[in-house]
Amino acid sequence: MVDGSSNRRVKNPKTNAQTLQRVLVKAVGMLYAMLKFICNHSFEGVSNGFQCMNKFRKVNLKYLRERAATLQSSGQSLYQFYQFMPLQSDKWTPFAAIISQGHLPSVSVGIDAEGGHKAYVNAPSRTYADFVNTWGLQRGDQVTFVTVQKRQGKYEVGYARIVLNPRNADGSGAPMTTEIVDSQGEFPCSDWKNQLNFSTFEFDTDHYNFVLGRGGDVVAAGIIVSRKDRSGGWFRSNCQLVLNEAALGSDLCSLAQAVESSYAAYEIDMESEFYLNNAGVTGTGSTSDVTPDGGSGGVTPGQPSYNTSATINGVSQSIASGSVNATAPITSVAVSGSNLGEVEFTAKVDGAGDAISPASHDANGATFTGLSVEAGHNLVVYHGGTVWFTITAQASGDPNE
Predict the structure, then answer these.
(1) CB-based contact 219:203 (threshold 8 Å)
(2) H/E element holding 53?
């Protein structure tokens, strides 16, 4: 009997593709362990716990793979695929991580690369009403601030949360700094459940600076907006962390170098409530929003929702009937809705031939540009592989237009 074991050849487990895949999977897994405190309930329309964990891993793996592919296709080294790795700590996270998704208005965050590396959010003036109007928020919304800060050579994750419900009757002219946090950095909410306070929350010219916890250089930051609906469910906003590479200093390293190092996953003990919910008794949210289960006339959060109009050649037209006429040539088509980031959009001339992909595509819709559909031809638009509507190109002055 011939022993064939000597003829077996084990495949190389360290090809570039396999190594990159292991690196990305490990990066996302360690990131989730670090941010589980909020990311196990931060995806709107997804069940808390296991389902949120899977959603977190899916969207961040997709982002990291696309980022790596972009760098490689442009001839750049993956050394530019930065993340921060605490050298003396078990806490770390990739940059630009997607930590929440939903349909509420997003609040953009920046980080000052100089002068203390503070995070900030823009607002034209310092009043409560201006802050709310700038970002499309409303009374009762809960705003959760998230930072990773470098303090005495170590990295710390910080959370703080406020409820947009001022103490006076109106609040339209109330300064955010006095309505939200007092001069000692404490909150006026008697039943505050937060573990950390702002060490800085101040208005500076046209924006608010904020630093959490015990202070330090802000390395990454983001803001999640939450809103309680009439059934007791919670809506979320999209939030992707921004990174301040300047604050990383000598800790800046490549993705592979960071992830292939061995660190124990950092776990935070969970509170009895979910952190993104119930900052205080005033955080009751709106009573007029649709219910998360897609109640009468409502939209299920997290699920795609398509508008019944499209912008064709720069003009908004109804597509409710499934067909529409437009003056030839058709050069651009923009469709819109909510939670459309993972929906596949394509178009075909006369419903045949090669599929046309949108020039741009995000959670709010997709735009086809550079088209040239002449009179007598149709442009069929698809979403998720299904025909959505058809545009008939007609000559100028056609009575059927």
Answers:
(1) no
(2) helix 50-73
